[in-house]
Amino acid sequence: QVQLVESGGGLVQPGGSLRLSCVASGLTLSNYDMKWYRQAPGKERELVADTISAGASNYADSVKGRFTISRDNAKNTVYLQMNSLKSEDTAVYSCNAIRSRRFSLRLEYWGQGTQVTVSS
Fold first, then answer.
1. Are 50 and 58 in contact (CB under 8 A)?
2. Rounded to the nearest 5°, which phi and psi values hold at 47?
3. Residue 54 confidence (pLDDT)
């Protein structure tokens, strides 16, 4: 079965950094586009960053220049490096895997999320 497990969340002061990891099992990461979402209390879920299986990446305007998504297909792991963190970044961050468009059935999987809290 497929499983996505996030780690790396926690409490950090404004201006600090965190690195989130998402380890996938039961799938071949090179066949999947990977995404990071976040959801703050009372807010809609927001797409933060994504990287397609070919390697290109995109970012929400609110995190451009501060966050970096990367992948290590050999380790079936996706990362989200978060720098210059702000209180507005406080949310539960979730990893998402969706199979590449070259497949007729775009299977999608979610991790359970990891809490990021930015506060003094």
1. yes
2. -75, 120
3. 78
Rounded Cα–Cα distance for residues 12 and 79 (Å): 18
CA distance 89 to 113: 14
Structure tokens at 119: 């506060």
| Torsion of the alpha carbons at 64, 11, 113 and 26, rounded to the nearest 10 | 90
Residues 6+ apart with CB under 8 A from 60: 46, 47, 48, 49
Average pLDDT per block of 10 residues along the chain, 120 residues long: 97 98 96 96 96 90 97 95 98 97 93 97
Task: Provide CB contacts within 8 A for 43, sequence distance 6+.
Answer: 91
Predicted local confidence at residue 92, as pLDDT? 98
pLDDT at res. 15: 98
